[in-house]
Each structure stands twice: as structure tokens, then as C-alpha cells.
Amino acid sequence: MRTRLMAWLGCVAMLSCAGAAQARFDIVPEPQRVSAGRGAFLLTRTTRITAPADRRAQWIAGFLRGAVRDQTGIALTIAAHAGHSRIELRIDPSIKGDEAYRLDVTPERVTLAAADDRGLFWGVQTLRQLLPLDARERAVIPSVHIEDAPRYPWRGVMLDTARHFYPVDFIKRQIDLAAYYKFDVFHWHLTDDQGWRIQINRYPKLTGVGAWRTEADGSRYGGFYTQAQIRDVVDYARQRNIMVVPEIEMPGHTSAAIAAYPELSCSGKQIKVPTTWGVFRDVDCVGKDSTFRFLENVLDEVTALFPSPYLHIGGDEVPEGVWADCAPCQTLARENGLQGEAALHGFFVRRIQQFLTGKGKTLIGWDEIMEGGMDPGAIVEVWRGPQEAAKALANGNRIIVAGPFYMDTPIDDMTLEDLYRTDPFDNPLFAKYPGKVLGGEAPLWSERADPMNADARLYPRLFAVAEHFWGSPSSDYAAFLERARAQEAWLGMQHVAYGPEDKDIVDARVSFNPTYRRWRIRAARGFDDLRLHYTLDSSPPTTQSPAFGDVLDLYAPATVTLAPFRGDVQYQASQVFKMVSNLALGKPVTYATPPAVPYSGALTDGILGSQYNDGTWAGWEGADMDATIDMDQPTPLHSVDARFLQNVQAWILLPRSVSFETSDDGKSWTTLQTIPLTVDPNDMRPFVRDVTFMPATPVTARYVRIVTARYGEPVGGIQTWIFSDEIIVK
Ligand code: ACM
Ligand code: ZN
In angstroms, what is the span from residue 326 Cα to ligand 2's centroid? Predict the structure, then answer.
């Protein structure tokens, strides 16, 4: 950067610069037309900003002044009259197109002209991207002529604040970043099963109860936004050309609201705010008029907070079948001639839509809102694929395309290049419905995203998304990549933990080598300079903790807590690996039925698991675990402990019973104890159960055998699994 800057200073001094045409303009999203000029503009303390006198233009001029000062340290003056050196902002009605702008940088001045104040703000964002990163006292901006306008008016980013809670400061920072890349919609997913995040004065329990959940380990998790905070965010976003569209999920994904007000559901049963992910059967009862009164009262307060003419009601993933067993729902269906539960869903959506229309708001919903018959005035957010877009367009609806842009997708599975090369707007059908495709949204669902790892899921991938929404990606991925990579220095200065282009941040696995009795943690890293800092005392790692890159070897059992850092920025929450010593460590195990691939983790590797897919579990589908450990020689056994996982969402259940057997020859067996367990297939929380055989006096044997009796019955029509990670012999 320094050499580039010096080269430019040289150019200015000589007032002629043959190299100017070679300047690279690393602007994301790429403007429609960019042509390099000759020479450069020298921005110094004497440069003045002039702008139209209206409040909005003056605010934009102030925003530019602040951005220049933050990035270069140069404090410009906003003046009514231009001086010798100037940046001139103007509205120019001859520029055609909403949000369009034209930016001219010449050695004499910078002129930013726009069709409207929105275009003016986007032009300022482009100008910011032209500023050098390391300027002090003077900043050189290469001469350039840019003409630009967006491809689509709706360029959204969605943040799910229900599964994980994101503080206001985090949201404002994301709004700053999104605006820098010319997104103009922040879709705020405010309610879901796992949390209700918006204060509603009339129903205080929505946040008093619905904003908090008790996790499997007993800790409380949650939070919500007060109405004052929401007004503040909406205003902050509006100043930055971003419209905030709230989403209040209904009639499904409403467990948190039902936990607060059980009368909303068909059964009226008291439930807890769930701590697991998925689709839940506690949904709003369509058959009770009180449900609509409640929702309308909520929407009264929501619509008053958000000036946006749109309101998103979710409407996705509704297990409509629950309404079949509800008398009021069935009565409503009969009275209105509604055939089947999907028709009840349609009735619900249309009734809410009518209410919103009365308040001057247009309803948006996920593409399931089409299933029960839909009014063409609604906007459909398409997530399940182009066939849903086709249905909505055929019905006369406007659409927003979200499906291919799910930012929660692991980076491994959706790389920067995948996103860049996949253009869902390149669809011949869309051309047949001019004006109906509003644009797109990139949703970040937050089951696996939290304030610490969200940056890396969003950036750099949102660069590719911005090119789709604002521009129209060319086939030149290499050129895009140069522009994208040029953003990293700026993002780094904003302390954004931007992620890798094509790998997950870190994938750490542990294995045991029985010959050398050595545990090895091996980490695949998204960046070569990512370091894994770790502690052995369960404290959170810091940059002062010891670190490794690819591998960490341990010759004694330990609990390793590790966290990935680049420089002083932590990229995701810490992860714990537990290794334990015991008499069975490294001893050979034989099975009556071998565990299923890929769930064939070793039972005597001393490694304790946590998640079912962390590589440490042995699993049997539709079969029992029958495992025999050869202890090499007759061994006094003080205790034998077998560990089992329950994770109903992955169809993994505890066994009904566990038998402990021993043998001296591996042929004739003595059953020492059969321990029965209570299995609750409705307990959705993942947990690990230790099942321990502990004789009054030690039993001596060479072979130890553990046999389970599995739950046996399918859950939701699906055969269940037995999962065990370890047998611990002491
Ligand atoms: C969705 O992903 N359920 C809209
Ligand atoms: Zn009902």
C-alpha cells in the first residue's frame, strides 16, 4: 500500500501520469461503468465539501466528513461555497434511475451527482472505497469516472436474533458494513421458537418469559430489544439508506410466545421456551378469535415502531396437521368451507394480511404462505427453490429471492466462488415478469451463528451476494476475487473477523494412538495464520494462552479448551476436548454388530464426546451395542462406566437397559448387573448419560462385555440409534 501511495504522490507532483489508466478500482459491488482518468485528486485539510442545503444532503455530507476523518485523520470542512479544492455533492435530475449516481474524480475536484439522495449516499460509499487506507495529512484519490445504479431495489440481509441474541451494537455495526456494500434492507427476524426479542407493552410476558430459555446445563440464555432500542436502530439504519423490515413469525415458530401465553395454542398447554432447533408442534390456534386479537394487538405496536411499509409474518414450516385435532380450528374450517389444514393456513394469512392492509402495510411471508391460496398483493420470500418463485410469479405476486443465499451454510459447503458463480436471477422466467422480482436477501439463521462467529459467515461471502443484488456478476471470478480481497484490509481495520473464502474457520478433531498412548488434536484451519490458543484448566483461552497451528499432542489425559484467533480477534467460541485415562484405554474392542460408518468412534480411546457428529461416537441403527473389551489379563474391576447419548432430533435414544457381563475366556459369560433406564423420546434436549456398574467388592475378569437393549420403536416413523463414546474401566 505504501508503495502504491508513493507512486501516486509522484504522479501528482509531476502532474502527468501515464500509469493512471492502470489504476485498479477495488469497489464492491462493482459499479456499472468505471473508467480511469489521468492524474489524481489530492485530498488535504483545505479540501471542502459542498452539498445541497437540505437536511438529508447535509447529513450525507457530514457522514462523508466523518468517514474521511476516521480513515485518513483528515478533518474536512463542510462549506456553503466551494474553495479551490473541493468535493461537490449535488442532485442532478438528468441522471436517470432510482439510486443512480455519477462520480467524477479529477485532479481539480471530486463531483458526486445523483438522481436522488439515496444515490448520493451510495456514491459516498463508493468514494469511501476509493480512499487509501494508510493516508495521513493527505490522501490521493485516482482520477476516475463512475456511473452506477442498482440491478434490484431490494438488497437485503436478514439476521435471526431469536436462536442467538445479538446486542444493539453488533446490529449497528452490521448495518454500517451492509451500507458500505450498498445493501438497503435489514430484515430483522425478531421472534421464533427459541426467543421473543421485541418488547410489547401490552403483553409483558412475551419478553418476561418468552425472551429467556433454560439451556440443558441449567444456564439462562436470552435477551430482547426495548422499543427505545428498536427506534434507535431503525433510525440509525434509515440514515444509512437501510430500511428495517421486522419479522414476527406466525402461526408457526411461535413456541416462545406460547410459553408466555399458552392460550395462543390449540391445546392451551403450558410449554417451556425450547432450547433445541427444529420445527415444533406448538403453533397459534387459527380457530380462536382471541388468537387474532392477540396478534393484532402485537402488530399494532410493531407497526408503530417500524416506518417500513412492509411487515414480514414468517409463515414458514407450519405443522398444519395439529389443527386437524382442534375443535375450534375444525369449526372454523367448516364454517368457511376450508378443505384441509393448508386452507386454514391460507385463511390465517389472508386475515392477517387484511389487518395489515388496513394499517397501510404490505405483508411479506416465506414461500409456504402460498400453500393455502394467496392474495397477489402479498410479497413472497422464496427460500425453497425456483419452483416456488415460479408459483408466486404465476399467481401475480412480487418476490424476494433468498434460497441460495443462506449465510448460515458452512463455508465448506457454500464458498465465495460458489456464491459468485450461482446467479438465481439469471432465470428466463424472471424476464417475463418485469418489476415482480424485487431483489434478494441473504439470511443468517443463527442456530450455529452467534455474535462471535457471525462476521466470518457474512464476510467475504456477502461481497458475492452484493454483486448479485446490486450488479450482475460477470464471469470473471478472478477479477472479483481481487476486488474482494482488497476489502480485507479495510474490514480488518474495522475489527471484522472476516472469514475464509472456501473453508470453515476451524475443524478440530481428536484421535488416540494406542501404541504411543498419545492423543492428537488435529485442526483444519480456514486461514494459515489462524492460531489455536488453549488452556488446560477450563478457563477461556486468550492470546496469552499457549497456541498451536495444525496439531497438538498430549501424552497425559487433559481437558483442552481451545479457541481460534487471528491476531487478537477471536473467531468463534471455545471448544472443549475431554480425554480421560482408565484401565481400558487402548484395549481392543470387538462387536457383535460393528458400529455404522461414519459413527464408528472408538470406545476405548479415552475421548469423551459432546455432539453426535464430533467423530467420537460409535453408533448402531436398528441394532444393539454388544461390545467386548479384552483387558489382556485378569483385571480387578472396581467400576465399569458406559456412556450413552440421547439426541432425539438425530433419532438417537438412550437404551432401555444396559447389561454388564464378564468372562475369563471370552466364551462363557456372567451377567453382573442389568441396569434399566427410563427413556423419554419426547425429551428433545441432547444429553449424555453415564451408566455405571460398581460392585461392592472388585470383580476380577479378563473380558468385559456391555450389551444394550435398545428403545426399539421407531420415533416419528424412523428407526432409532444407540450412541456410545466410551467405556471407562477403573
Ligand atoms: C426458512 O428457512 N425456514 C424460511
Ligand atoms: Zn386450534
Answer: 5
Residues 92, 12 within the same domain: yes
Say if residues 312 and 249 touch (Cβ distance below 8 Å): no
Average the pLDDT over 122-146 and give the result. Answer: 93
Are residues 627 and 529 part of one domain? Answer: no
Q: Point out the ligand 1 atom lying closest to the alpha carbon of residue 381.
A: 4
Mean pLDDT of 185-189: 98
User: Ligand 1 within 6 A of 383 CB?
Assistant: yes
pLDDT the model gives residue 531:
97
- Does this model's pTM top 0.85? My answer is yes
Q: For atom 2 of ligand 1, which residue has the closest CA? A: 383
Residues near 84 by beta carbon (within 8 Å), at least 6 away in sequence = 46
CA distance 347 to 542: 54
Query: Which CATH number fits the domain that encloses residue 565?
Result: 2.60.40
Domain encompassing residue 658: 589-729
Ligand 2 centre from 347 Cα, in Å? Answer: 13
Residue 699: pLDDT over 60: yes
Query: C-alpha grid cell for residue 316?
Result: 414458514
Q: Are residues 13 and 62 in the same domain?
A: yes
State the total domains in the chain.
3
Please state the three-class secondary structure of 172-224 as a single string: HHHHHHHHHCCCCEEEEECEECCEECECCCCCCHHHHCCCEEECCCCCEEECC
Domain boundary among 120, 148, 176: 148
